[in-house]
Protein: Inositol-1-monophosphatase
Organism: Microvirga alba
Amino acid sequence: MTVMTDAVMKASRSLKRDFGEVENLQVSRKGPGDFVSAADRKAEKILREALEKARPGYGFVMEESGIVVGTDQSHRWHIDPLDGTTNFLHGLPQFAISVGLERDGQVVAGVIYDPAKDELFIAEKGKGAYLNNRRIRVAARNELVDAVVACGLPHIGKGDHGLFLREAASVMGNVGGMRRLGAAALDLAYVACGRMDAYWERGLHSWDVAAGILMIREAGGYISDADGGSDPLNKGSVACGNEIMHRELLKLLKKAKG
Ligand code: IPD
């Protein structure tokens, strides 16, 4: 945990310097609606160097540099150096660094840091989840009508827009409120600490969700892929909440799929 938080805090100093400096960040498009900048690349380099130095041989799955197979086949880091790039590049202070450690197919440690709010979420398998050193738990609300549900939107060139609209209509008609905040790692962390009651999104990658999956579980929550499958790390979608919210959300998503 110390190795991970040290690396994350170091990278966050670089992101803080770059926030608001968009004209100097060599922004480019990886695809329609999918941006990358010097801020993402610098933060990823810092994370990779720090983690490699502390744990030589571990593999990497990184948003910007891809996969690096390590000599240690049982450990790999899943790194999103800047989750919420679009927010960041628009000056919206809702973005995070997310680092998850996978050991033999299971996420065993996760760190999500929001530099703009100085909020550090950490989780270690079997040891609970914490926000700035205070234990966190998923919300206890169990009526959909009281629930605030976060989601992610597909955008130009990405995802099944029709399916999303059907799912959103199905959820919207049954819950107290819906939100789209724009950084998947923070959406997961917010469910873990009870700010949101549930969250679903399709079209994600392991670097977006690795740390958050553990955060939810260690906070007493339930998480699956958006179709109820048990491998959200590799399936590219998530649905989560407390036990009841998770189950009810899955029912609404299933209804939308038909
Ligand atoms: C994105 C954010 C966003 C989600 C997208 C992700 P990135 O991550 O998490 O909330 O809707 O699907 O790709 O690209 O900013 O690291």
Helices lie at 2-18, 38-54, 85-89, 161-172, 184-192, 206-218, 232-235, 243-257.
